[in-house]
Structures are given as C-alpha cells and as structure tokens.
Design a protein that fits this description.
Order of helices and strands of chain B: EEEHHHHHHHHHHHEEEHHHH
Strand content of chain B: 5-15%
Distance between the termini of chain A: 50 Å
Largest sheet of chain A: 5 strands, mixed
Shape of chain B: globular
Oligomer: heterodimer
CATH architecture of chain B: Orthogonal Bundle
Radius of gyration of chain A: 16 Å
Strand content of chain A: 25-35%
Number of helices of chain B: 15
CATH class of chain B: Mainly Alpha
Strand order of the largest sheet of chain B: 1-2-3
Helix content of chain A: 10-25%
Number of strands of chain A: 7
CATH architecture of chain A: 2-Layer Sandwich
Radius of gyration of chain B: 21 Å
Number of domains of chain B: 1
Structural class of chain A: alpha/beta
Largest interface: A-B, 37 and 42 residues
Shape of chain A: globular
CATH topology of chain A: Beta Polymerase, domain 2
Number of helices of chain A: 4
Largest sheet of chain B: 3 strands, antiparallel
CATH topology of chain B: Cytochrome-c3 Hydrogenase, chain B
Distance between the termini of chain B: 40 Å
Number of strands of chain B: 6
Chain lengths: 148, 370
C-alpha cells in the first residue's frame, strides 16, 4: 500500500503531524503538517515514491500563511496533503529544484499572496503585471474600481 | 540536423500574445540561435480575471456561473467538479439519474473540446480542411447541448444536488443519431489526417516527454497518457456514475506529438461508448437530491475534489470557515501544469516544431490565467 509507504517514509523526518485523512470527507488519504524548512526533505521522499505535485496554494489565515501542497500518484490512488505554516514576515523554502513543476506554483503563491520562497531560481510575478504593487489574495485586499 | 556555424548570434523572437497558434493570449519569449530555440519563457496572465478572488467575495451558488468561464471548452467538467466539492462539504448525494445526465452531458462536452482541438491543431500545422469537418460535427453536439442546457459554450447546468432539467426523447434520439454519424466519420478522419504523410512527418518524434518528466512536472491528461501512463481520473479515482460503464484508457508508447494526437482521437470513441451505455442504462427517478438547503452554508472544513477534463486533472480545493462565502477556493487547472514543461521541451527545437508542441499540449489560456 502506497499510503503505508508514504507514512513510513515521512515518520523519520520528525514532522509535526502525519495521520490518515478522511478520504470520503476531504478527498485526502494522508494529512501531514510540516515546518517550512522540512519541505525539501518531504518533497524528496514523495518524489522517490513516484508521487507528483498536484497543486500548491496558499491560505491567508489571520496570524500566518498556510501553504497547502497536494501530492498525487499515477499508479495508485493516494492523495497526500501537506500543510506548512509560514509566519507572515518569514520566507518559505522552495522545492522547485526537486519538482521543477513547483516553479510556477511558487511564483503564483508569491504573486497572489506575497509569500517568498528561499532558493527559488526566478521568483517573478506570473499572472499579474510585473509592475503590480499588491497581492490580491491577501484578506485585506479589496478590489474596487479605483484599484482595477 | 543543421550544423551550427560560429558567426551565429542569439536573438529574441516574440511568439504571441496575438498569434493563432497560441490559442488565446499567450506570449512566449524565444531566445533563438539561428533557427533553433535556446530558451523559451512563456508569459501568461493576459487573461487573469481573478476567479479565485471573486470566489471569496460571493456565495457558493453565486460562484457557480464562474466555473463555465474558466475553461470554456470543457465547461461542464468544471461545473461538475465544483458541484462535487460543495456536495461533499454539505453531505449531499446526487440521485442516480442525475449522475447519468451529468456523465452524458460532460462526455458530450469532452467530445466538443476534442473536436475543436483536432480542427484547430491541424490548422496550426497547415491543414485547413479538417477544421471544417470537425466544426461541422461539433455544431451538431452544440445544438443538442443548447437544447438541454440553454447555452452553447459557457454552460452553467449542474446544481448542488443534481441537475435542473431532465432529458427527453428528442434529446436521446438526437444523441443516438449523433453517435452513429460521428462513428461513420472516423474513416474520413483517418484517411484525411492520421495517414497523411505530411502530418506524420510533422508529428512523429517531436516534443518527446518521458514518464519521469510527467512526474516531476505534475502533468495530467493526454500529456501523460501519450507517454504511456494510464492515468485517467475517471478510472483511477472514480467519481459520479463512471464506474458503471465499460471503457478503455487509450495510451501512447513514445510520448511524442503523434501519440498525444492519437490518444485524443481514440478517446473520442471511448466517450461515444460511455454516452451510448449511459443512454441504454439510465434509470428512472429523481434528478435532484431532496432537501437541498436553500441557503448554502457548509460547516467549517476543507475538501479537494478532482475530475478528468479534456486537458487533464481539474482539482477544486475549497476551504470553508462556516460562512455563506467560501474562505478560499483554489482551482487546480490542468493546463497550468502542462504548460510549465514547455521551457524544458522547447530547447533545441525549431519554431515550426514549437507550434506543433504547443498545440499538442492543448492549452486553453484563460484556464491557465483564471
């Protein structure tokens, strides 16, 4: 079972939480919480098990950002959700050297939330114009005719 | 392979944003050395409308019409994925007949998308006639979907808990007629395109993608199936009524442009098989769940649901904090991941090949930009 393999591979990393998820309710088989600095190690383990990065996104919680990584697998159905809390004034750590596909997802998170990724080779805006001076998915952002 | 001289120097070539082969507003900055590309940098975001921001500022039901406008070519799959996610949050079950109608219409929409792709792609490669054949066939489907849903392109047909309109005999007869018609056309398509020597020379061995690249870039859909990975959400993570039907997942073996073309062509026949079986087996009964709340206000929690669109995996990740508006909706669109491999596979190819590769990814740019 892939789910057991992933769990086994992640336990030695001393992550905050590695637990089975309620697939019927959340669509995820495994739920993991990690610190920003642990993310490259997690990604390396996921890649060695043949998982691909399904999606990466941010959440702007009042006290901190949460990065949500979803990993899937082509051979066996097992979706792993990794939550990483990033304090508002700190950087996350890039995994684009492990998953090149993460390059664009990290640029998107930077573009929409202003989250910086240490070690990213090319952290430019991706969807918004390069000269934009706002991050639209921050909760304090309000689109109005004046901003548009 | 041409031998590269010493006096060549690199220059920058702008492909797009207004270029017929970029299928929407996509710009690719190419660094060229003679005829060969040394670096390709896609510039996306020209059609960024802020769907994810809009989601946070309207109720669940108000956001539903947006889903038809993210990927306008396979809008019903997006409708379905979003409805599935909200239904999971609310704990709603769609009645069997509702699921069947969803499958029939979503597969018809997939055929529309593939037919458009075949026509437009071959036009990219210089063949004009197939485009007219494909649009002729697609038009029949659009008429059928128009009859049922009331729109031709940006559908907003599914509801939380089911579908609002039942299918009738006219629709069923029209569908069966169309299946017969499209099947009779496969021979034409084959003779016109698949066996065409010019097309084969443009497509064979171009834009190779390995299975390892599929994993590292998070590719999905015909991109991975062309490379020989039988990954299709309809089978690997069955949803809706798909487990009730007998269909195959066509795969390629080399991972080149030709394989991705053949995968899509063969997928169309499988879609016809699914529609045919669904029309035969459709049960009677209600099409909407009972007790759908008037005011959609799911409990706090999060959900990820995925469907197979014409381009690959569309995932809808919803975080609810118990309010009438979603706290966050992330739209995981297939073309975003699929296009991100372009800088790697474009290197050392000709511009003409880049057009063939870009087309074979089947990008819908407004979907990438969201």
């Amino acid at each position: 079972m892939l789910q057991d393999d992933i769990q086994k591979a992640l336990v030695p990393l001393n992550l905050e939480l590695v637990t089975a998820g309620d697939y019927g309710k959340t669509g995820c088989h495994l739920e993991v919480t990690a610190a920003p600095g642990q993310m490259p190690e997690v990604a390396k383990n996921m890649l060695s098990l043949g998982c691909f990065l399904e999606s990466l996104t941010g959440l702007h919680d009042p006290e901190h950002f949460t990065l949500v990584y979803h990993f899937g697998n082509f051979r066996e159905l097992c979706r792993t959700e990794v939550n990483v809390k990033v304090p508002l004034d700190q950087e996350a750590v890039s995994i684009s050297h492990i998953y090149p596909g993460a390059n664009w997802y990290e640029r998107e998170a930077y573009d929409l939330f202003g989250i910086r990724f240490a070690g990213h080779p090319d952290l430019r805006r991706i969807l918004l114009p390069f000269e934009a001076d706002f991050h639209p998915l921050l909760k304090k952002f309000e689109a109005s005719s004046g901003d548009a | 392979m041409l031998e590269r001289g010493l006096e060549e120097k690199t220059y920058v070539l702008n492909l797009g944003p207004q270029h017929p082969s970029t299928h929407g507003v996509l710009r690719v900055e190419l660094e060229m050395e003679g005829e060969f590309i040394t670096k390709a940098d896609p510039d996306i975001g020209y059609g960024h409308r802020g769907h994810e921001h809009m989601a946070e500022n309207r109720t669940y039901a108000q956001f539903l019409p947006n889903m038809g406008r993210v990927d306008y070519l396979h809008a019903l799959a997006y409708n379905q994925c979003y409805c599935m996610a909200v239904e999971k949050l609310l704990g709603l079950t769609v009645p069997e007949r509702g699921e069947f109608i969803r499958v029939i219409t979503a597969e018809m929409n997939r055929l529309c998308s593939h037919l458009l792709w075949v026509g437009a792609y071959l036009m990219d490669l210089g063949a004009f006639t197939p485009f007219l054949y494909c649009f002729d066939d697609r038009e029949q489907l659009l008429d059928l979907l128009d009859y049922l849903t009331g729109s031709r392109l940006t559908y907003c047909f599914y509801r939380f808990g089911g579908v609002p309109v039942d299918i009738d005999d006219d629709f069923t007869t029209g569908c069966r007629k169309f299946i017969k018609r499209l099947r009779s056309r496969w021979a034409d398509y084959d003779n016109l395109v698949t066996k065409n020597v010019i097309f084969i020379h443009r497509a064979r061995g171009v834009g190779l993608i390995t299975q390892d690249q599929c994993i590292r870039y998070g590719l999905t859909g015909p991109m991975v199936r062309g490379s020989g990975i039988p990954y299709d959400i309809r089978k690997s993570e069955p949803y809706s009524a798909y487990p009730r039907f007998d269909f195959e997942i066509p795969i390629g073996d080399r991972g080149d442009v030709m394989d991705r073309y053949l995968v899509r062509i063969r997928e169309m026949e499988q879609s016809l098989r699914i529609i045919e079986q669904a029309l035969d087996k459709i049960p009677t009964g209600p099409i909407m769940a009972e007790k759908v709340p008037k005011r959609i206000k799911p409990a706090a929690g999060e959900v990820y649901s995925a469907v197979e669109t014409a381009r690959g995996e569309f995932g809808c990740f919803i975080v609810s904090n118990g309010d009438v508006k979603p706290y966050r909706i992330k739209l995981r669109v297939p073309s975003f991941g699929n296009l991100s491999i372009l800088p790697e596979i474009a290197v050392d190819t000709l511009v003409a090949d880049l057009v063939a590769i870009l087309g074979s990814i089947d990008v819908v740019v407004p979907e990438i930009d969201r």
